[in-house]
Amino acid sequence: MGFENSLWHDTADDDFAPRPPLPGDIEADVAIVGAGYTGLWTAYYLQALNRRLRIAVVEREIAGFGASGRNGGWCSALFPPTSSGIARRHGRDAAVAVRRAMHESLVEVGRVARAEGIEAHYARGGTVSLARNDAQLIRASRLVEEEQSLTGNAERLELLSKQDAQAVAHATRVLGATYTPHCAVVHPLKLVRGLAGCVEARGVSIFEGTTALALNHGAVVTDRGTVRAEVVVRATEGYTASLRGQRRRLVPLYSLMIATEPLPAEAWAQIGLARRETFADLRHMRIYGQRTADDRLAFGGRGAPYHFSSRTRPDFDRNGRVHAALREVLVDLFPVVREHRITHEWGGALGVPRDWHASVGLDRRRGLAWAGGYVGDGVATSNLAGRTLAQLIAGEPGEITRLPWVGHRSRAWEPEPLRWLGVNGGRLLLTHADRAEARSGKPARSARAFARMIGY
Ligand SMILES: Cc1cc2nc3c(=O)[nH]c(=O)nc-3n(C[C@H](O)[C@H](O)[C@H](O)COP(=O)(O)OP(=O)(O)OC[C@H]3O[C@@H](n4cnc5c(N)ncnc54)[C@H](O)[C@@H]3O)c2cc1C
Questions:
Q1: Confidence at residue 399, expressed as pLDDT on a 0 to 100 scale
Q2: Given this model, what pLDDT does residue 445 score?
């Protein structure tokens, strides 16, 4: 549902013919579960380090079916937790190292796409985050101060005046903004499909229509047979809870998106985004948008309900109330959108760890590796994850294998019904905080306390 209904699916120039499933029991050196960015970047860099490795990827649906094929296409340097969250837990040097590694990652995605001939519409225009009420303006200047005091000028995060912000995005009620050059836009599905084709052409085996049931020491047990391998990589992000023994590891949160028809030049004169800057405002309940290569607006936001017991289902990708609200927010930002058709509505699940701290690691003794928990910031982060996992598995450590997210273990989520109450309670709290801030212009203390509580 979310997959076939997306703008990306309609514009990927792909027949999505499924690859054959696992033919029965096989042996490999590395078995990867999940053919999204995480699994495929891992395969890509592993293969580059050692061409002789036998790498098998098993995918329940088809490559790119998950969040990697449906996302907002911000190839950004955002990383969960933020610099202040990392500095609090691991120190300032660690926060600077993560910023640098993320900057490299978003450049690396563009470099590989070019080098491998993947036409992913990569364009680096940066991100403008608008402040549209006083509380958001206070937050904008605090964010810039905080980032500068922690990581110096690494982020090049600037505070824009009202005039400068409006020059980038001609949105309503703009009071100012932050701007960072560290973001590119991509066509997410073309990127992941291109990557799958690329690793396959170099000898990686991708088995689609193959469901992993359990990840054991030295083996992935699937519905089509068993892949025996020295190392098994879990790259299932928002779907992880469906694996045996992993139910409380990552919560699947749904993020939903809409897209407009291609907009004419007159509409763009009223919108701006001339360099295809990604855009958001500084509300707590995240929204995100991009100007696509074919001149549409693709726009998304969180706020869809969490489903009991961490279930994921195709019908959760659509939510009339949330999709309608997204349209309202987009029209509120750029009123000219009202005159144009919304052509696509879709969504997908992203993965959230209990402490909102992404992680990557290898437990050599148990032969299990993993990466994820990107909390909706996985486009560039998964590239860093893939490079890191490849180095860990190949036993060739380097600077990136010393980053503080390597080997980080998030604690398990609470059992139900506490999990359901906590996640949906947090969602409502942030929505109310945004409404209160829009009314009063005063920063909502509850939202700040919530962010602190989850260590963000
Ligand atoms: C609507 C939306 C918008 C987003 N916008 C952005 C954005 O703009 N920028 C950004 O940085 N991030 C964004 N994200 C997050 C980003 O897309 C993800 O963090 C990233 O794609 C995760 O990649 P992945 O490979 O780890 O997971 P996925 O792409 O979800 O891949 C996991 C794969 O595992 C497969 N799988 C699951 N279970 C099994 C099993 N048992 N056996 C075999 N295979 C299995 C799935 O079918 C899937 O293909 C967004 C996410 C969503 C949903």
A1: 96
A2: 83
**Residue 456 confidence (pLDDT):** 60
Q: Measured from the CB, is residue 70 less than 6 Å from ligand 1?
A: yes
- Rounded to the nearest whole angstrom, what is the distance from the C-alpha of residue 67 to the centroid of ligand 1? 3
State in Å: Cα 266 to ligand 1 middle.
35
Query: Which candidate, 227, 228, 290, 223, places its Cα nearest to that of 259?
Result: 290
User: Considering only CA atoms, which residue is closest to atom 9 of ligand 1?
Assistant: 74
How far does residue 36's CA lie from ligand 1's centre (Å)?
A: 6
Q: What is the whole-number distance in angstroms between the Cα of residue 132 and the centre of ligand 1? A: 30
Q: Whose CA is closest to 83, among 135, 142, 130, 41?
A: 142
186 within ligand 1 shell (Cβ under 6 A): no
Nearest CA to ligand 1 atom 25: 36
E-only strand ranges, 199-260? 205-207, 212-216, 219-222, 225-228, 231-234, 251-260
Q: Which two tokens stand for residue 199?
A: 């690793």
Q: Residue 58 Cα, ligand 1 centroid: separation in angstroms?
A: 15
Number of the ligand 1 atom closest to the C-alpha atom of 257? 1
Predicted model pTM = 0.97
d(CA 94, CA 377): 19
Residue pair 443/141 in contact by the 8 Å Cβ criterion: no
Nearest to 352 by CA among 242, 239, 448: 239
- As a whole number of angstroms, the longest Cα–Cα distance in the chain is 63
DSSP string computed for 155-195 = T--EEEPHHHHHHHB--TT--EEEEES-EEE--HHHHHHHH
Q: Give me 19's structure tokens.
A: 């690859």
Residue with tokens 């837990």: 89
DSSP letter (8 states) at residue 57? E
pLDDT at residue number 154: 84
If the chain, 456 residues long, is cut into consecutive pieces of 10 residues, what is the mean pLDDT of each piece? Answer: 91 97 98 98 98 97 98 98 94 96 98 98 98 97 94 91 98 98 98 98 98 95 98 98 94 97 98 98 96 98 93 94 97 98 98 97 97 97 98 97 98 96 93 92 82 65
Pairing of strands 30-33, 55-58: parallel
Helices (H), 50-168: 83-90, 92-115, 134-151, 162-168
CB of 85 within 6 A of ligand 1: the answer is no
| CA pair distance 32, 239, nearest whole angstrom | 14
- The answer to whether the CB of 58 is under 6 A from ligand 1 is yes
Predicted local distance difference test score (pLDDT) of residue 1: 63
Cβ of 372 less than 6 Å from ligand 1:
yes
